[in-house]
Structures are given as structure tokens and as C-alpha cells.
Amino acid sequence: xxxxxxxxxxxxxxxxxxxxxxxxxxxxxxxxxxxxxxxxxxxxxxxxxxxxxxxxxxxxxxxxxxxxxxxxxxxxxxxxxxxxxxxxxxxxxxxxxxxxxxxxxxxxxxxxxxxxxxxxxxxxxxxxxxxxxxxxxxxxxxxxxxxxxxxxxxxxxxxxxxxxxxxxxxxxxxxxxxxxxxxxxxxxxxxxxxxxxxxxxxxxxxxxxxxxxxxxxxxxxxxxxxxxxxxxxxxxxxxxxxxxxxxxxxxxxxxxxxxxxxxxxxxxxxxxxxxxxxxxxxxxxxxxxxxxxxxxxxxxxxxxxxxxxxxxxxxxxxxxxxxxxxxxxxxxxxxxxxxxxxxxxxxxxxxxxxxxxxxxxxxxx
Length: 365
Fold this sequence. Notes:
Blueprint: E1 2-7, H1 18-34, E2 39-42, H2 56-64, E3 71-74, E4 77-78, H3 84-97, E5 102-107, H4 112-117, H5 125-142, E6 144-148, E7 153-158, E8 171-174, H6 180-189, E9 192-198, H7 206-218, E10 227-231, E11 233-234, H8 240-259, E12 265-266, E13 269-270, H9 281-287, E14 290-291, H10 293-307, E15 311-315, H11 323-345
Parallel strand pairs: 1-2, 1-15, 2-3, 3-5, 4-5, 5-8, 8-9, 9-10, 10-15, 11-14
Antiparallel strand pairs: 6-7, 12-13
Helix pairs in contact: 1-11, 2-3, 3-5, 8-9, 10-11
């Protein structure tokens, strides 16, 4: 099991300009590299202050020039919002300039607001994502695209720009847990399912993971890699975790408003609107890894025992948490939380390692 840093890059404080927010994310990436995180993930969203990164591949290319060893992840490329041939070239280019450090996180998207303003239909997003996967595999594995799909039609085109990693970068697929057709494709190709956990206990993902594991067995794969994402805050200051929980609730309200198409905006700034059945601050603090290093380690240890992830992505900055708070939280994770986990589990890298040593990612079974 490896750890990742997830950078959402929100703009709750609208006085902070996007350049400053991006520079703070890069500073977090540098610290994550120093703390021996495996990957830094950069989000993608459009037209609101929920996230200020419109292109995670651009952030990965920038981060490649200021880091040396940490892998660079797209978290995620929203596939239906792209022109496919340009996308496959940009994927290959980022992997080349980063010296093979790209981790390709992909997703179908979920925000109708974004899709409408791109002139796309959200109801087509799963089918479009599958066709885009065809095109990525074709370009990377064969060096040529010739495609006649429902959504994308590409004449025979030689692709000279291919990834450094062979056959292609490791692909993580976010969400889509209820779409068994998509999940079957993920299983056959050996991609990594990536499901959000955020403030919820590990038990919330047990059923979904079980269904996916069973599906993997039906296509002949004995072990399934599995990635999940947690919202985290580590502090030695009593009561500071309550502030973090409020920022988590703010983030959740924005995300759910965008997911269920109930969001209200003042131009590009999302209004914070309470959501029906949303968790209370007390419920967030009960299940999320927030608080002292010992408490955070206990929550993450439960995740590891129950879910056996091969990758655990951690979001340290969300809502209006300051850069100082995020960086301090990361440092405490590296110096105090991680040693507790290593004492309990030994070599964390051995957890679910077998799932990552099967047929190379991206090669259809």
C-alpha cells in the first residue's frame, strides 16, 4: 500500500488568486515527495471555485519540473470533456517529460453544470468514457488509431508520441462503482478502481469493494488493486479539528450540490447550501481521520484492516484551511502518524502488493 496526496485546490477565500492556490499545491507536492508519498494527485473541475485546476495534465507537467521522484497523478481527467486524439498525445507527452512518472486517473464526470457549459450530455458520459479508453489503449499499445464508434470517429492516424512507461501508465478509474459494464472493462484491463471514502468509515465501502472483487474473479484475476481517498487533518492543537470538520462539511455541501444539480452560483462562486441528511460536525469527527496523530492513526488503521487498499489518497487541504494548517498536518502525518501505522502493520508496501504484480496495467486480459 502506498500513500498519495490529493490536491483539490479550492477557492473558498475568493481573495486568493488561482496562481497562489496552484503554487500552494506545488509546495504541498514538494513536501509530499520529502515525506516519501508515492503520488500527488491533481483534481479537475470547471467554472466554479470548488476547484481551480481546469487541467490536471498541465499541473502534472508543471510539477514534473519542480519534483524528482514523486509520481504525478491526474485526479481525474474527465474523459468526455476532451478531444480524444489530442488527449492521447498529451498523456504521452506528460509521461515523457516527467520521465515516466505519470499516474493516469480517469473518470466519466458527474457535474451536469460542467457538461452543459461544455455542450456535452451527462447521460452519455459512461459510454463516452469506454470509447475514450479504447482510443487510449489503441494509441499507446499500437501506435495508431483507427476508430468508428458512436461518439468518436477517427481515421487511421499514426501516433508517434507514446508514453515512456510500457505499455502505458498505470490507470486509475474513479467512481462508477454501480456501472458493472464499466467495471468489467476495468477488471479485464487491470486498471485500479478508485472509490471515495472521505469522511465515512471503512464499512461504507465494504459492499462496493466486495462486488468489484467478485467481478474481478469472473474475468480470471485473483487479486484486485484498490484505491480510496480520505479527507484528513492532523493537529496537536485542541479543538482545531472542529474547524477542519467545518471545512469538510463546506466541501461536501458544494460537491453534493454539483452532483445533484442543486448548486447555486454567484457568477463562478458557489453558495454554501445545507444538504438534506448531510453529516453533522460530530459525525464527521466520529469517522474521519481528524485530530491528534494517535486518533488519526487509529482511524487509518481501521481503513487498512477492513479495506486492504493498495493506494490511500489523502486530502489535507479543503474548504478554507490555510496553507500553514495543511502543511503542518502533512508534517505530523509523516513524523507521527506513519510511524504508528508502521509499528502496527510492518511494511505498509506489502499490503495488497500481489494485486499490483499481475499482468501489466493496460493490457487486456
